[in-house]
Amino acid sequence: FEQPTVIKQCLEGRISATKVLDQAFGVKAADILDQVEAVQIIACGTSYHSGMVTKYWIEKYAGIPCQVEVASEFRYRHTVIAKNTLLITISQSGETADTLAALRKAKEQGLLASMTVCNVPGSSLVRESDLCLMTNAGPEIGVASTKAFTTQLTALLLLTVALAKRNGMSEAAETEIVTALHQLPGLVEKALALDPVIEKISQLFADKHHSLFLGRGPMYPIAQEGALKLKEISYIHAEAYPAGELKHGPLALVDEDMPIIAVAPKNDLLEKLVSNLEEVKARGGELFVFADESVNLYDLDDQHLVSLPTVPCCLEPIVYIIPLQLLSYHVAVLKGTDVDQPRNLAKSVTV
Ligand code: F1P
User: Fold this and answer.
1) ipTM value greater than 0.90
2) Cα–Cα distance measured from residue 169 to residue 53, given in angstroms and rounded to the nearest whole number
């Protein structure tokens, strides 16, 4: 529930009414950002999902190739770093051992520069990176990341604009994103106001053992993050798929015992997503769809539909994760698990 406030903190001093300010990235940044020809993102867990969303943004808005990999793979594999690569590590704690090791390895291979998107000042990743983009979310008590995730995304959208401006993004397009960012705390507030509705829905999950999360485009990593939240704190097995992959296997899992959760903002992928959801419904699946209030999903109106306010396209991932966080929270409370300290997990994985 702190998320509207910490998102404001994350944006403070980094945007004007219409522009992303270069000072947001530190004094050394302008010259480095001018030279970026490729981006490599490395992270773990929830922070990896921020990276996955950012790939969609950087390739769409900045037209720069962007790779994302979990640090535990990157650090041990034979990697090839493209010319003039900006390596971005994303980490709440700044101490995750795999991410740190991956950064050190990439530096040895030769980079244009490294940047960390991090929440803890003075942490190892902050000390060892050329540039730091602090998320300013304040201490996160629970093991499962929530406000760290939404502030990472907020900071990474600013970075996307900074790179896009250098690659032909028009002033009007920049202003459109910055205007949207000014609305973000209010939109997150509205999403949080869905809490009572989601609490009610959560009761339908208490006896479930498995679940499937679906999204398309940048909402696929949001489906992944929703699934991670549910398994981390409620111990319900959850998997996420890009909705178009259903027919390549997971559709075989669909029956009345498998709740299917979908994130369905109003964008150019909605029609395709809805046709995937209709396939699920036709096979007896029970759907929980988080959708834009202005869209009429009449073919799905016998399912569980939760309406969200219309959100500017660039902000959809940041706003739509909120109901999924709330869902996991309420399911976990109902199941009596320790929401802040789930079994077998540590806040910071330093070994
Ligand atoms: C990565 C992470 C978290 C997760 C848990 C274990 O940490 O996977 O996303 O919620 O706390 O570690 P970090 O590198 O973002 O600190």
Assistant:
1) yes
2) 19
